[in-house]
Amino acid sequence: MSLALAFDLLLVAALVWSAARALTVTDLFRGVVLFIVFGLLMALAWARLGAPDIALAEAAIGAGLTGALLLDAVGHLRAKQEPKA
Amino acid sequence: MKALPALIVLLATALALLLGWAMLDLPPHALRLPGEVAAKIADSGVEHPVTAVLLNFRGYDTLLEVAVLLLALLGVLALAQPHAAPTAAPAHPLLQTLARLLAPLMVLVAGYLLWVGAIAPGGAFQAGAVLGAAGVLLRLAGLLPTWAAPGRLLRGGLALGLLVFVAVALAVLGQGSLLQYPPALAGGLILLIEAGLTLSIGLTLAGLYLAGTEVQQ
After folding, report:
1. Per-residue pLDDT tens for B20-39?
2. How far is B103 from chain A (nearest CA, A)?
3. What's the gap in Å between the CA of B176 and the closest CA on chain A?
4. I need a labelling partner for B82 at 20 to 30 A (CA). Which of A15, B137, B150, B170 fits?
C-alpha cells in the first residue's frame, strides 16, 4: 500500500467521521467546530482530486466564512438563552 | 406514529439507491467537455480553463450567481435589527495588532488571486472571499463597526460588481449572444468584471457577518 493511498483512505475516514459527528453531536458549538473541520478536510480532498479552484473556494467560503457565521449564530443563541436560565 | 419514521427511512433509502443507480447508469463520457474548453481557450481571453468557463463560456451563470448573492445580503439587511448598537467591543490588544497586521496582507492576497485567475487557480470568488474574511477579522477585533444602516457608498460598492457585469453584458450584446465578448477585448473585459466582482463579493460576504451583528460580551 503506497503512502498516497494510505493518506487518501485516512482522509476519507476522517471526512465521514467529521460529517457524522457534526450531524449527531448535541452541543451546537461542537457541531460548528466539527463542521469547520469537515470543510477543511473537504478542501484537502478537492486538492487531492486535482481541483485547486474548488479547494480554494471550499476553504475560504465553506470552512472560513460559513464557520464564522455559524459561530456567530451560536453566540447569539447562547446570549438569548442565558438570561432565561 | 412509529410507522412514519420507518416509512421515511425506507423512502430515503430507496431514493439513495435510485440516485446511486442513476450515477452508475450515466454514459461514461457523453461529451468531452475538457476537450471542448481546451479547443476554444485561445478565444476566451484567459489561459485558465476554470476562469474561461466561469467568466466567458458560461458567463450568464456567474452573472446570476452574483445577483443571487446580492439578493441574499438584501434579505439579511432587511431582517437586521436597526437598533443594533454599533459600539465596538474592546478586543484583546494582541488580536487587534494581529488583525491590523493581517488585513493589509489579505487585501494583497485578494489582489494577487484576482490577477492570477487568468492563468492559474484563483479568480473573483476566491479573492472576494479573502476580502470578506478580512472584514470579518477586523470586526472580530472590534476595529470595524456593524452596518446599522449602510450608507450610499457602501450600497454602491455592494452593487458595483453586478452593475459592471450587466453593463459589459449590455455593451457586448451586439455580438450575437449573451456575454459573447469579442476575442480581442475578452481578457480586459474579464479582468474589469472580476475586479468589480471581487469588491462586491468581498463586501457582500463581510456584510452577511457585519449586518446587524450585535456586540457580544
Report:
1. 998 888 777 667 777 878 88
2. 15
3. 30
4. B137
Sign of the alpha-carbon dihedral angle for A24, A5, B50, B137: positive
Which positions in chain B touch A69 (Cβ < 8 Å)? 208-209
| Cβ <8 Å between B126 and A52 | no
Q: Decide which of B84 and A25 is more confident.
A: A25
Under 8 Å between Cβ of B66 and B198: no
CA B140, B141, B146 angle in degrees (round to 5)?
Answer: 55
CA distance readout (Å), B79 to A7, A26, B74, B152: 45, 28, 9, 19
Whether residue B216 is predicted with pLDDT greater than 70 in this model: the reply is no
pLDDT tens digit sequence for A12-62: 999 999 999 999 999 999 999 999 999 999 999 999 998 888 888 888 888
* CA–CA distance, B143 with B145 (Å, rounded to integer): 7
pTM above 0.80, yes or no: no
Which residues on chain B are in Cβ contact (under 8 Å) with A75? 216
Could you report how far apart the first and last alpha carbons of chain A are, in Å?
Answer: 55
Q: How many CB atoms lie within 10 A of CB B205?
A: 29
Question: Smallest Cβ distance to B136: which of A56, A65, A76?
Answer: A65
